[in-house]
Design goal:
Elements (H helix, E strand, L loop, with lengths): L1 E5 L11 H15 L3 E7 L2 H4 L9 E10 L2 E13 L2 E7 L1 H4 L15 H19 L3 E7 L6 H12 L4 E8 L7 E3 L19 E2 L2 E3 H8 L2 E4 L2 H6 L3 H4 L3 H6 L4 E3 L27 H13 L10 E5 L8 H5 L2 H6 L3 E5 L4 H13 L4 E4 L4 H10 L2 E4 L9 H7 L3 E5 L2 H6 L13 E3 L3 H16 L1 H13 L4 H15 L1
Parallel strand pairs: 1-2, 1-6, 2-5, 6-7, 7-11, 11-12, 13-14, 13-16, 14-15, 16-17, 17-18
Antiparallel strand pairs: 3-4, 4-5, 8-10, 9-10
Helix pairs in contact: 1-19, 4-5, 10-14, 15-18
Amino acid sequence: MNIVHVASEMFPYIKTGGLADVVGALARELARRGHQVTVFLPGYRAVLEHAELGQQIRRTQRLRIEMGDMFMTGDVREFFPEKNLRVFLICREEFFDRKLPYGTGERDYEDNHHRFIFFCKGVIETMRRHDLDADVVHSHDWPAGLLPALLRVEEQRSAINLAIRTVHTIHNIAFQGLFPMRSFYRTNLPEEFMGVDGVEYYGQASMMKAGLQLADRITTVSPNYAREVQTPEFGCGLDGVIQQRADDLVGIVNGIDTDTWNPRTDPLIPGHYSADDLGGKKLCRAALLKAHGFDPQFSGPVFGMVCRLTEQKGVQLLLANEELLAGAKLKLIVIGWGDPTLETGMRDLAARLPEKVFFNPAIDEKISHLVEAGSDFFLMPSLFEPCGLNQMYSQAYGTVPVATRVGGLVDTIVDCADDPEQGTGILIEATAAGLGQGIERAIALREDKPGFAKVQANGMARDFGWSQAVQAYEDYYEEIV
């Protein structure tokens, strides 16, 4: 098949979260199975300057994009990461030559609607000029939400075929690309797209809603999340729209890149190991403790947490358990940045409990791998989690996840109390009390050495690689085409 992915991130070139991992791994695995795969990304500075690419990127065409009552120019560049896989970059310095992809770190860029309207239009123009004639065009999250509408309008306008089917994936319904309705004119779409059956959302324009309304099919990143987003609790105001498209919605659990996340071969950790020989994990544990100022010989449980510091990730639930952390024999290492209030809360917690808690306000790939390999338990107290990847990384690395009963966490973790024979982690309620109980369960499990070893072994025996997920996507593409 000829498959086109349109996204705002792709590992290893630009990443802020799991979206990048999914797009990068899915595109590569589909290409390795013989499909012709094209990925469109914004031409961010980070991609153009990426060390792995060197001189591989070449300019292929100039763009002249209609944006409302004016035209804007840009470039299209391309490179070929491997056989059957091509990446196009939609470039305009004004929009994408910035340090971060979506905002300053404290607030979103005020021109994000212009940036991603230009990006989506650049994709359509490039597809048209290169005569891609795709079987499936697969757009991801709000930055690519306008793609399905722009594609069909261009087909009608130019009497051409750009794609047999369009698919839009919800990676996180909480991020919807909401902008003032006056920005709609930049799309040059017919006026009927302004209404409630198009982009209109309580007087604003929603790029995510556009994708949900106008794509031929919708997917999301786990079966449980597909059910959750149809409810007021998790649908973030779009549950009614999704309910209307329920027959066109499926949930497919993400996989993980086992070339990158594999304790047997991971070049970013100090010791390699497997379920049969955990000696390397002990080295990683000692290295993790030492790197963060703790005694490497500490015998109690080590908890790790790597995430964006947002309310979604449940950081406030962790802060509410200070009394428990102070009284328990444990070490906690938290890596992440985000909400300034939560950052301050974590700094203050680490300052009050320096012998227990270390906080690093950054996310570094090498440190993230060390936390996964060196921790005994990985905390994921998310209020919602569409799929989640860290709980799968954790199980692959023999690190027991302590996670809430939401989204894809339910689909990928077997609670060891619910199923003592097959259990791979600890599932909790998404409350401060629930997290406290989960930490207490983890401490007790660590003291039960045979029980802890069994849960570790169960997790490491599971196959979270992309083979199953890619097969599900292949079957889905073939069915809808």
